[in-house]
Amino acid sequence: MAARGADRKLVVTHVVSGDLWAGAEAQAFQLISGLQANDVIKPTVVVFNPGVLFEKLSALGVDVTIADESALSPIKQLKIICGHLRQHSTDILHTHGFKENVLGTIARYLSGVKRSIQTVHGSPEHQPTWQDPKKKITHLLDHTLTKLCQDAVVAVSQHLKTVLEPRYPNKIVVIRNFINTDETVSCSPLKPVHEQEDSEASYTIALVGRCVPVKRIDLFIDTIARLRIDHHLKVEGKICGDGPLLETMKQYAETKGVANFIDFRGFVQNMEPEWASMDALIMPSDHEGLPMTLLEALLRNVPVVAHHAGGIPEVLNYGNCGLLVENHSATGYAEGLAKLIKQPKIAGKLKANGQKHVKNEFSKRKNVQNYEALYRAISQKKQRLTQNT
Q1: What is the 3-state secondary structure (H, E, C) of 178-194?
Q2: Which among 13, 61, 187, 190 has most CB atoms closer than 10 A?
Q3: CA atoms 225, 227, 229, 233: torsion sign
């Protein structure tokens, strides 16, 4: 049992899935690694799956426990979480995800942890129904426990705050997603438009994200087809991401006649070469919380065309740092990308604005400090945490 004392660091235990390396996991890693580096708050972690997040945190020397959801019942997972909380004398529980929030909050009370917060990384992709009773019950429990038990609920964008505020009044704190803007990255140069008629070179357009319905890989494929057929541009696409729809989308590309022009890269461990080789990023998702992928693209001077939905406009500074598409169709995205290809001065301005914006508003240093301030406020039992950071 960790020693207690007046000068003892607050211990914050994070509960996160860790099954995939997706947005929530990437953001949790940024936060936990930042807390570890600052050495003001002591972070510990419970993950529900072995994988990239577990490996990266372990390499940093963070205390991580696996409560493997593929091998253990929820009751056994609960026991492991309780054991971790007691072992580390946790002061504040911090949950990321629905099931994580349910089991973590129950474990909090069983273990005597006094305070807890939850980060909501985005709206659910779909509302569960009673046709899937397990997910429906989890969703209801998550909502009930959040409303009754959480000391604060972190929304990662202003848009998400407007969604959550009616459900959890006087609990919402906005702390945006963030990345390490201090690290050296190989930024994409301002590339001139390709001489399409006289060169074999093509314009590379990328989608970075999992192959799941909400990411609309189908729209990406349709957009590549529209650019080649309707706009007569030599474009190639690449998709960096794995997921359940990967094979289906490969077949879909075949039916659209563009399979030879789209490179399905799968999960990419080292994204730096991918960022350096792309001419533009497209994000045609139906909705997003505050996508980490866009932050990474802006930092690296990659021009962006994205859906005007969720937290995306906030990242792109409402069109000052990227093209926002209202026409959520292949035609709409193709028109936006054709504009960037044919008018490179516009792309150059958006890139310059984007990198400045992400460094000013989404820096790791600033937002880790915002979390540290929130933890201190929670530990001092301050109520009505309504500040927007």
Answers
A1: CECCCCCCCCCCCCCCC
A2: 13
A3: negative
Cα separation, 216 vs 249, whole angstroms: 10
Q: Of the candidates 192, 147, 145, which has an alpha carbon nearest to the alpha carbon of residue 166?
A: 147
- Measured CA to CA, the distance from residue 143 to residue 98 in angstroms comes to 9
End-to-end CA distance of the chain: 34
DSSP β-bridge partners for residue 117: 94, 152
Assigned CATH class of 203-361: alpha beta
DSSP state of 244: T
81-84 long-range contacts, Cβ below 8 Å, gap at least 24?
Answer: 81/15, 81/46, 81/107, 81/111, 82/107, 82/110, 82/111, 84/13, 84/44, 84/46
Q: How far is CA 341 from CA 131, 154, 247, 334, in A?
A: 46, 38, 30, 10
Residue showing tokens 């939850």: 118
pLDDT at 185 over 70: no
CATH 3.40.50.2000 domain locations along the chain: 11-178+363-379, 203-361
CATH code for residues 11-178+363-379: 3.40.50.2000
| Between 136 and 5, residue with greater pLDDT | 136
User: What is the widest separation between alpha-carbon atoms in the chain?
Assistant: 73
- pLDDT of 203 higher than 90: yes
d(CA 303, CA 310): 19
DSSP 300: T
Question: What DSSP character marks residue 247?
Answer: H
DSSP secondary structure string for all residues of 215-233: G-HHHHHHHHHHHHHTS--
- Residue 192, judged by CB atoms within 10 A of its CB (0-12, 13-18, 19+), counts as exposed
- 251-266: pLDDT as tens digits: 999 999 999 999 999 9
Q: Which residues pair with 116 in a beta bridge?
A: 93
CB 67 within 8 A of CB 77: yes
Query: Going by DSSP bridges, is the β-strand pair 280-283/304-307 parallel, antiparallel, or unpaired?
Result: parallel
Dist CA 343 CA 325 (whole Å): 17
Of all helices (H) and strands (E), which one includes residue 34?
helix 23-38
Cα gap 155→200, rounded to integer Å: 46
